[in-house]
Amino acid sequence: MSNEAALAIDLGGTELRAALVDRDGKILAFAAVPTQAQAGPDVVIGQIEALAATIHGEAPALAIVGVGVGAPGPLDPLAGIAVGPPTLAGWLDVPLADILERRLGLPVRLENDANAAALGEWRFGAGHGARSLVFVTVSTGIGGGVVVDGRILHGRRGLAAEIGHMTITNEGERCMCGVVGCFEAIASGTALGRRANAATAPWDGSALRRLSGNGQVTGRHVVEAARLQDELALALLEEEARWLGIGFTNLLHLYSPDVLVVGGGIANGLDLMAPAIEATIRQRAMRAYRDVPVVQAQLGRHAGLVGAASLVLFDDGGTLAARMPVGPSTYPDARRDFNG
C-alpha cells in the first residue's frame, strides 16, 4: 500500500476544511476551522498554512505529493488565481496557487469548488465509471460542474457551466445576480424555503412551522415534513421537482452526460421528487436524452475535498501542465505578491 497522499483544501466563506486523501479516495486525516473571511487574503492564507501543518501532524509518515485547493469562484484554474470570490473580503486577482507553492513547498492545483466536487463524484462517487457527468448541487444556491470525456469543462477563464444562472423562466423572484428567472432563484433550497414561508405563518399549527420551531422554514424542513406525508410539503416538493426537471432537461440537452448527479441539502429529498423530475424530463427532453439516470451524490460534504485531492493524484481536468503565464494585460498585478 502506497504511503502517498494529497493535501486537500476546501476554502469556503464560512468554513476552511483540510484533509489528507489517498489514491483510493479515502480520507486519512481531517480538520476544519471557521474561515476568517472578512480579514483579507493574508490572514486566510495563514489559516491554510496552519491547517496544513495540523493535518500533516496527524499522519507524519505520509508523503504529501501536492496540494489541491477547491475555492469559490470566479477563479482561473490555469493561472491559479482567485479572481474575486464574493464570499471572501479583499480577494481580487490573488495568485493563490503561487503563494501556497512558495509557503508550503509543494505543487498546488486550484479549482472551482463545484468543479472539485464534480470530480470527486466522477472518480469515487455516484459517477464512478462514467465518461461524462453533470454534477448539480442544490442548497442555498445552485451550482455544479461538468466532466466531459474525463476532463473538467472549464471554458474561458474557468467560468464554464455556471448552472445556477441559466434562465428557466421570465417570472419569479429576482436572483442575487440581479436577473429574473435564474435556475438558482427558482429552484434552490432558498427558493423552496421562501415558497414554504409564504404558504404558512408562525404558530399556524402547520407541520412546516412546527418543524422550524415557528421560525423561518427552510428547504430542509420541507423535505422533513414531506417524509411525514404532510400534504402542503408534498405539494411544495412536487413544484420544486418540476422546476428541477426543467433545469435538468436543459443540462441534458447541453452536455449529454452519462449520468446527472445531484448533491446538496435538497438532494436528501431526491427519492421523493424523482417521479415528478422524471415525468418532467420525459415531457420536455428529446427522446435520446430521456434515459440518462438522475442519481443522488454519494460523497456528501467531502466530495470537494476528494475531488481537490484527485487534481494532484490523478492529473484530473487535464491542466497539470505548468500553469499558463499571466499576461500584464489580463492580470496586471497577479504576479506580484498580493500584499504589494
Automatic annotation (TrEMBL):
<comment type="similarity">
    <text>Belongs to the ROK (NagC/XylR) family.</text>
</comment>
<dbReference type="InterPro" id="IPR049874">
    <property type="entry name" value="ROK_cs"/>
</dbReference>
<keyword id="KW-0418">Kinase</keyword>
<dbReference type="Pfam" id="PF00480">
    <property type="entry name" value="ROK"/>
</dbReference>
<dbReference type="InterPro" id="IPR000600">
    <property type="entry name" value="ROK"/>
</dbReference>
<dbReference type="InterPro" id="IPR043129">
    <property type="entry name" value="ATPase_NBD"/>
</dbReference>
<dbReference type="GO" id="GO:0004340">
    <property type="term" value="F:glucokinase activity"/>
</dbReference>
<keyword id="KW-0808">Transferase</keyword>
<protein>
    <submittedName>
        <fullName>Glucokinase</fullName>
        <ecNumber>2.7.1.2</ecNumber>
    </submittedName>
</protein>
